[in-house]
Amino acid sequence: MKTVILAEKPPQAKAYAEAFEVANREKTHIELKPCSTFPQGATITWGIGHLVGLKMPGEYKDEWKKWDIKNLPIFPDVFEYKVSQGKINQFNAVKKLINNADLVINACDVDREGSNIFYSTFNMTGAKNKTIKRLWITSLEVDAIVKGFQSLQSNEKDLLMYKEAKTRQISDWLVGMNASPLYSLLLQNKGLNASLSIGRVQSPLVYMIYQHQKEIENFVSKPFFELVGHFKSTNGPYSGKARIKTDTLKELTSLLEEKSLVLDKEITGKVLELETKEKHTRSPRLHSLSTLQKLANKKWKYSPSKVLEIMQSLYEKKLVTYPRTSINFITENEFVYLANNVEKYMQLINVEFTPNKIADKRYVDGEKVQEHYAIIPTKTIPSANTLNSLSVEEKHIYDEVLRNTLAMFHSDYLYEETKIVTAVNDIKFETVGKVEIEKGWKSLFVHSDDEEHVKNDSNKVLPSVSKDEGVLSILQSKEGHTTPPKHYTEGDLIGIMKTAGKTVDNETDKEILNEVEGLGTDATRSGIIDKIKENGYIEVKKNIVSVTNKGEILCESINGTLLSSPIMTAKWESKLKKIGEGQGSQDEFLQGIKDFIVGIIEDAPQKIGTEKISLAAEEQHHTQFVGKCPKCGNGIREKKSFFGCSKYPDCKFTLSDNFRKKKLTKTNIKDLLDGKETTVKGIKKADKNTYNAVVKLNEKGFIDFVSFAKKE
Questions:
Q1: pTM score of the predicted model
Q2: Mean pLDDT value of segment 305-315
Q3: What ranges do the domains of the chain cover?
């Protein structure tokens, strides 16, 4: 029996090969020697991500090659695939190997996209009557790989995941290939030279950022006044705050007058309540990809995609488990190997404590683990040389995963909290103080202690007081100002995508969003963020996210439609999930997408004429021209290698962008169009010397040499 193993990427294939004895290495595949796992040997080959993808509209019909509203909607009768650009050689090698095989093993990533990559490639090869099995592992360590190949799964579940992934891929294609030309062409009809990319996940995300930005821009800061008490007890001073907040100082002083009190005057108060409790804080949950992305962005300003890239590298180096996980729990199996190695992990970061090796449901719960478990270190204990060979970014992320996992074995953070309630003429003031008893798991993170814990006034040690004790009191006002919401960071985007349910009011929609965990998945969110950056909808400066002019135009265009709402994509994800569970219909889902597209094609023309778009069109009209046409007076636009009249073909005026092989500057062009003389610098003579020339536009619209200018 000939066995072919298809990995998703070359590094993955290399890791599989390292678990066995290699017979031969080729450019496109690796041959394994016969062994107990593969008695007749096996061949490992690989994709380069997606070897095949959906065809573009113009590859179905000639009229779909050019954007035209009259050609919408674009609904192919049957969706067809093609080999991705630049990947034909590898595909041909994979095709040959699969067609000659008896058993084909899907060893791509264990998620729906891995299933999509395998089956779209397999189907494109035209292979028939092959036995297909699924490798299901979440670690690239040798023993995990060998065990996985010795206990291959059927492809029953895998086929459902592929069906879900293919449905998602086609639905995204339908939305993008119809909504993008629709809105772009409608904007162009409004006089705006814009080309928009519309997506079922990226567009709602941009809109959420846009709404938040508008909230900040429209925020008006208002003053407020609070009441603070400063107290002097027998054993020392302390301060407290009343639960009173007024808009003006006058309101505050009036309220005090009603209680026969005035500001800044000494008066006797009394300790009304005194409570001291020992409290504890559990260590944080184990990391999923999203929690790690948010934390790394906050600590080191790493973008979400950078964190995924680093995690993928550490995974391929067999130091951490599968990165694209949304789960914060592990099973008993993982806990056992972690407990067995905990002392070795401690040595890696030079810490010592007595580990608690009893599994806790906060971290260890097999029922909450689906395809993947939380991100933890593997059984592989890296040597000093291995750790030193890691990049700075890899060291940061590995260290965080390691400490986060060790925290599970550490004791709780213990502290004593004292609460004093002081009464001054019926007004109560609260004072809270903490005394640290035992750092516990927080000792693992001393280099980056909890910022809130450090800054919070409640960490002050309070003087010893007794109930009913009299204290001297001085009341003061404290002025503050309301502050706008903070701008989003890239790490925040991961959070708002995951918790998109908070942004909707309808309880049913909120429930659906919470069920599917918001927009996108842990595996796709960083890619979605990268996509809206690439499309020019947002920009990130010093880790602060802002919507660009192009992003604002997108949001104004889709305002009021389901394309701007996370509800639509949440409902789609819910239905896709059912398809993956074998309970939903692909045909029904795609028909719903088509109905939605027909609806927006009908409604969009009436909804796109906002004032913002009109202003943007007017502004663009004034800024896109470099000057006036000397023939007809309309605007001159910059083309690829010349400048031409915007009224072409009615006016055919053109102006070359160079003079005697020297490219003209924008200043040169503007001067020429204004009828002025202008200096072109650095023109080369035949003898290779250079000179500066004064030129001017003649009556026929050609550039004339006027004189030599003094060379600078």
A1: 0.80
A2: 95
A3: 3-51+87-154, 170-217+487-611, 223-282+413-481, 289-407, 625-709
